[in-house]
Amino acid sequence: MDAPETRELAYFVAVAEELHFGRAAERLGMAQPPLSRAIQRLERRMGVALLERTSRAVSLTPAGAVFLAESRKALDAVAAAVRRAQRSGRESPRLLVVMKPEGDAGLLGRILPAYRLDPDAVEVEVVVCGIGEQSAMLRDGRADLAFLHGPWDDVSGFDVEPLLTEDQVAVLPRGHRLADRAALVLSDLDGEQLPRWPGVDVAGASGPLVRDASQLMQLIALSQVVAVLPETMRRNARADVVCVPVLDAPSSSILVAWPERTRSRAVAAFVRACTEVAHGGRAVENAGR
C-alpha cells in the first residue's frame, strides 16, 4: 500500500485522542463526514481496523493503539524537520538547549564557557521548561539538546551521554516524623503521599500531579506530599524542608541527549563541552557523526 500522508496521520491522531468523531472534526476545523470517510479509507488501505465503533462509543483496537504511538512519532519527526531546518537556515544559527529547573545539577554554568571555546560553537539559547517536558521538546524539534534524567525520562530516539550519577534524598517538611533521621530506606516512606509526574508511572504515587519545582517544594512544605529526589536538590532547598539520604533508592543520572543520526557540528561541540566539564573530556564518538 501507499504510505499514509501526513494529513491522514493527523486525522487519525485527532480521532484516537478524542475518541469522538465530532470533537475530532471540530478540533481539525472540518466537517465530520469527510473525516469519517478519510479514516475508513485509511483502514481499507492498511487492511486492518484501527477503531472500534458503536452507536455510543469509539475505542482503539490493538492495531490502532500501535498506530497512534507511531503516528505521533511520525508527526513529531515532520515538525522537528521543519523547525530544525528553519533554525539552521538563519543567518545567525543557534542551539536550543532545554532543561527543567535545576535539571543540570549546576553543570551548565561551566559547560557554556567551555563550549564557546570550540570553533564549531554557535549561540546557545537555554529554555527552562516544566517537569517532564524536555523529551517532547527535543523530539518535536523545539530543542536541539536536552538535559534528561534517568531512569525516568523517555530517551527513545535519542543518543545520550551520561554526565553525572547521584544518590537520592527524601525531601520532607521540617516537622515531619522522619525529618531528624540521619538516613532512611524506602520502606520508611510507606503510607506517605507521593507526587505524580507528567508522563511517568510511579508505583504507589497517588498525590497531586506536579509540573514544576516550585510547586513541588510548596506542597512538601505544606505537608501535602514527600518526594524522593536527586541529592543536588540540597543546594537550593528551602528553609522549611529537609533532605534525608535514602540508602536503598536507585541512583539518578543526568544525561545530555540529542536526536539520533544528528549531523550537526554545533551539537557535537556542545556534547564535547559537556563531557569535558562532567568527566574530564572522555571522547563522545556518536555526537554529530
Automatic annotation (TrEMBL):
<dbReference type="GO" id="GO:0032993">
    <property type="term" value="C:protein-DNA complex"/>
</dbReference>
<dbReference type="InterPro" id="IPR036390">
    <property type="entry name" value="WH_DNA-bd_sf"/>
</dbReference>
<dbReference type="InterPro" id="IPR005119">
    <property type="entry name" value="LysR_subst-bd"/>
</dbReference>
<dbReference type="GO" id="GO:0003700">
    <property type="term" value="F:DNA-binding transcription factor activity"/>
</dbReference>
<feature type="domain" description="HTH lysR-type">
    <location>
        <begin position="4"/>
        <end position="61"/>
    </location>
</feature>
<dbReference type="InterPro" id="IPR036388">
    <property type="entry name" value="WH-like_DNA-bd_sf"/>
</dbReference>
<keyword id="KW-0805">Transcription regulation</keyword>
<keyword id="KW-0804">Transcription</keyword>
<dbReference type="GO" id="GO:0003677">
    <property type="term" value="F:DNA binding"/>
</dbReference>
<keyword id="KW-0238">DNA-binding</keyword>
<dbReference type="InterPro" id="IPR000847">
    <property type="entry name" value="LysR_HTH_N"/>
</dbReference>
<dbReference type="Pfam" id="PF03466">
    <property type="entry name" value="LysR_substrate"/>
</dbReference>
<comment type="similarity">
    <text>Belongs to the LysR transcriptional regulatory family.</text>
</comment>
<protein>
    <submittedName>
        <fullName>LysR family transcriptional regulator</fullName>
    </submittedName>
</protein>
<dbReference type="Pfam" id="PF00126">
    <property type="entry name" value="HTH_1"/>
</dbReference>
